Amino acid sequence: MVSETAPTGELCSIPALLARNARVHGASPAYREKEFGIWQSWTWIEVAEEIRAMAEGFLALGMARGDYVAIIGRNRPAHYWAMVAAQMCGAIPVPLYQDAVAEEMAYVLEHCGARFVVCGDQEQVDKVIEVQDRVHSIEHVMYNDKRGMRKYDHSHLHWLHDVQAEGRAGHTRFDGELDRRISELDYDSTCVMLYTSGTTGKPKGVVLSNRNIIETSKNSSEFDHLKHSDEVLAYLPMAWVGDFIFSIGQAMWTGFCVNCPESPETMMTDLREIGPTYYFAPPRIFETMLTNVMIRMEDASPLKKRMFDRYMKLAQEVGPAILDGKPVAAIDKLRYALGNLFVYGPLKNTLGLSRVRVAYTAGEAIGPEIFDFYRGLGINLKQLYGQTEASVFITQQPDHEVRSDTVGVPSPGVEVKIGENGEVYYRSPGVFVEYYKNAESTASTKDAEGWVATGDAGFFEPDTGHLRIIDRAKDVGKMADGSLFAPKYVENKLKFYPDILEAVVFGNGREMCTAFINIDLTAVGNWAERNNIAYASYQELAGHPRVLDTIQEHVEEVNRSVAEDEMLSGCQIHRFLVLHKELDADDGELTRTRKVRRKIIEEKFHDLIAALYDGSTRISTETEVTYEDGRKGSIKATLELRDAAVQEPRHRRMAAE
Questions:
Q1: Sign (positive/negative) of CA torsion 20, 22, 28, 32?
Q2: What CA dihedral angle connects 373, 375, 380 and 381, to 10 degrees?
């Protein structure tokens, strides 16, 4: 069983860690933010003062123990501080996805019964006001950015700066009460409530305690030797458990600096300016970065393109071995050093990854080709496997034991086992307390001994002890001939190509696999411009014959690769189509963390799937879409369906020989 002991000393809450950091790392930078093109920085002492003023301002508004405080906005220091300030008051922070539409937001606000809402800007305030007629628990709304807010009714609307000013002015009244509430916090106090992405239904509120967050932060920080001099970039959704662990949990435990970019549009520029030493990105971010690199190389001179291709081939051959300290021929080391001077070093600098000491990817499986590309550059990119219910970490890859097809060994303090049906189970100090207001789901997910069912299918490699995840257990199935069906394996291979943004593979219980493809508008649009191909929309470009020809080449190349895998060779794609629209979270086709909602896609595009299996070569369809302002509309399209060449599986070829 996992340890139930409290940490050494008084470090049993996030506010306690904050106080420790102010004492020990007082003059070191704690949070940075870029605003109006200028980086602003706060030391740990200054952060402690800002958070305390905010907490006392919350008390002035009547925040009580056990209240729920929603935080909605982009990554900004003040939003992180609001979460810690709420904890100081004995309240529970609930970060929400800032790109959620009002309807999604209303569900979470009503479900948790939020009395207070901290908004980033006018856009978020407007969404809260829109749903207040349904969410009756909200009493006070605060906002961080005051632009556009002057003419609003401020009877229950407050500028966060004014709330802090009220706290500072009234500190003599609130100091004693705030200190009492902070002293009441212990290891079993609720630290945060985070909502799941709702892949298969309504999001569930995951209650995480101080024990969950602090033990996980401590163990994972020690695993990778993180220290207070490290730098991270906080750009992923604040409602996602990973951002909470990296930007609050590990930051508070180690005392490292959290840097907030100015906007999503400036993220890559800000990444280069900060040069983080510790970096996390989901596969989609690494895919996008690689796509941009490939686009730039297509526009490079022939000499630069030849040099890039030559040295990247070398990087794939020897780069990962050099990174892992394995034996490599002296001549290859010399050639790699030259490659680092002329190609790898400048490329890493352009990507903002020159100083990265530890990088992770997770959320879904990353294509092995993409993974090896970054490792080939000398970037210590590793994989972890985690869940919101685990406070992120279930397994991690140790340095020098990194491979693209595993997710590593159990993280420190975590036990992992494989059920009889192949499902992965774990228990650890990070295991969530409960699903809020959902005892039935809690009981079905976590048993009496603390074991949690992940919903993923996997197995441990007998020789290495590393865990391999095959796919979501519910998505893994059998083809009609009994061969294994694991769609994510094929989808990730397809997404290695810069011009494929998303792929959804079908085939469970059927005689063959088929696929939907989303093109990457940036990559394919760049190609179209270089080739003087005019287009007016995504739909027009997606249906262009030359685009379809290119996608068919990619599908058939993936089929050749899949045919080499004895276990999954039956997952080759026989027919495919390029969708007339991008899969979108606003249309319910993806979660807010960009995971595919297969059931919804199957229901929404049932006519297209039927056409793929009945041999049709063309089909006309109409699809409902959601515009940026929330209005609904529809688009009509006639799609071309194509056959793709499949290969004889390798094990059958060898048997025949």
A1: positive
A2: 50
Report if residue 407 sits inside a domain.
yes
CA distance 372 to 354: 17
Distances (CA, A) of 230 to 28, 40, 221, 274, 357: 11, 18, 11, 11, 9
- Pair of tokens at residue 639: 């799609």
Half-sphere exposure of 367 (CA within 13 A, CB side): 25
Dmax over CA atoms of the chain, in Å, equals 87
Rounded Cα distance between 657 and 649, Å, is: 13
CA dist., res. 54 & res. 86, Å (int): 9
How do 92-96 and 632-643 pair as beta strands? unpaired
604-645 pLDDT, tens digit per residue, is: 999 999 999 999 999 999 998 887 767 888 899 999 999 999
Q: What residues contact 600, with CB distance under 8 A and at least 6 apart?
A: 588, 589
Q: 23: domain range?
A: 16-185+237-254
CB–CB of 17/210 below 8 Å?
no
pLDDT value at 1 more than 60:
no
Query: At 413, phi and psi to the nearest 5?
Result: 85, 0
Q: In total, how many domains does the chain have?
A: 3
Contact assessment for residue 74 and residue 95, using Cβ atoms and an 8 Å cutoff: no
List 208's β-bridge partners, or say none: 192
Same domain (yes/no): 336, 441: yes
DSSP 40-88: EEEEHHHHHHHHHHHHHHHHHTT--TT-EEEEESSS-HHHHHHHHHHHH
* Whether 332 contacts 318, CB under 8 Å: yes
Single-letter code of the amino acid located at 493? K
Do 373 and 415 lie in a common domain? yes
Q: Output the CA–CA distances (angstroms, integers) from residue 440 to 199, 390, 444, 484, in the order listed.
A: 18, 18, 6, 32
Query: What CATH number is given to the structural domain containing 503?
Result: 3.30.300.30
Q: For residues 419 and 507, state if they share a domain.
A: no
User: Is residue 368 one of the residues assigned to a domain?
Assistant: yes
Residues 645 and 585 placed together within one structural domain of the fold: yes
Contacts of 330 (CB under 8 A, 6+ apart): none
* Residue 481 placed within a domain: yes
| Alpha-carbon span 317 to 326, nearest angstrom | 12
**CATH code of 160's domain:** 3.40.50.12780
Q: Which tokens go with 550?
A: 């290119």
Nearest C-alpha neighbor of 498 from the set 566, 550, 458, 570? 550
pLDDT tens digits along 452-490: 999 888 889 888 899 988 777 777 788 999 888 888 889
Structure pTM?
0.82
Residue whose token pair is 């908004």: 119
Q: What's the one-letter identity of residue 15? A: P
H or E element: which one contains 594?
none
